[in-house]
Design brief:
With 208 residues, this protein is mainly beta. It has a single domain (53-207), classed as Leucine-rich repeat, LRR (right-handed beta-alpha superhelix) (Alpha-Beta Horseshoe). The chain is built from one helix and 18 strands. A five-stranded mixed β-sheet has the order 1-2-3-6-5, with no helix packed on it. A hairpin with a 2-residue loop joins strand 5 (38-41) and strand 6. It is globular, with a radius of gyration of 17 Å.
Length: 208
């Protein structure tokens, strides 16, 4: 199976002997989509470990998506410009959110990322105008990219569990709510306050 194959309401591309990437939904007008953990094709079960870049980009119908536990990353531009996307359920296998992955998803209201995320890419959630709350459960998050949450004008609370954060990109929080509160582990309070200040995030209140 090297070519693109349709199964269970979607198209898939083989990436290994037992793994596939989710290429996109068969019905481009579907409002709710599940990227499964596994899919059976021609009697064989494959793990769905990735989503194709731009798999949903520009989809104006999509309102909710559930991502299976075997997906390891959200690639660049995967959901860019999905203007009606209001709800995303992230599988706990995800380690990274790619560049501009959810840029312009202006209906998205809250985001909860799992325990394995290490990187939030440049512009990952840029211009998500209705986004009010973000929670990152991972203790391993080390990087928040440039413009990651820029233009999220209603973003008021960002909760981080990580003790490994080393890098916050330029303008990561530009244009967010004027009193954005970043909640962090107590033992990292001073370190993260300094990290934010050094990046010009002067309006952010870092709390334990």
């Amino acid at each position: 199976m090297g070519q693109t194959v349709a199964a269970a309401g979607a198209t898939y591309q083989a990436t290994g002997t037992a793994t596939v990437t989710y290429a996109g939904p068969s019905n481009k007008k579907a409002t709710s989509v599940t990227v499964p953990a596994t899919v059976t094709i021609s009697g064989r079960t494959y793990q769905v470990t990735s989503i194709a870049s731009k798999a949903f980009a520009g989809n104006k119908a999509l309102k909710s998506v559930k991502i299976g536990a075997n997906v390891k990353s959200i690639p660049a531009n995967a959901f860019k410009g999905c203007t009606k996307l209001a709800s995303v359920s992230f599988g706990n296998g995800i380690t990274s959110i790619g560049k501009n992955a959810f840029s312009g998803c202006k209906a998205l209201k809250s985001v909860t990322l799992g325990t394995k995320v290490t990187t939030i890419g440049d512009g990952a959630f840029q211009n998500c105008a209705k986004l009010t709350k973000v929670t990152v459960k991972s203790t391993k998050l080390s990087k928040i990219g440039r413009n990651a949450f820029a233009g999220c004008k209603k973003l008021g609370t960002l909760t981080l569990k990580t003790t490994k954060l080393k890098s916050i990109g330029k303008n990561a929080f530009k244009g967010t709510k004027s009193k954005l509160t970043v909640k962090v582990p107590k033992k990292k309070l001073k370190t993260y306050q300094k990290l934010c200040k050094n990046k010009g995030c002067k309006t952010i209140r870092v709390k334990k």
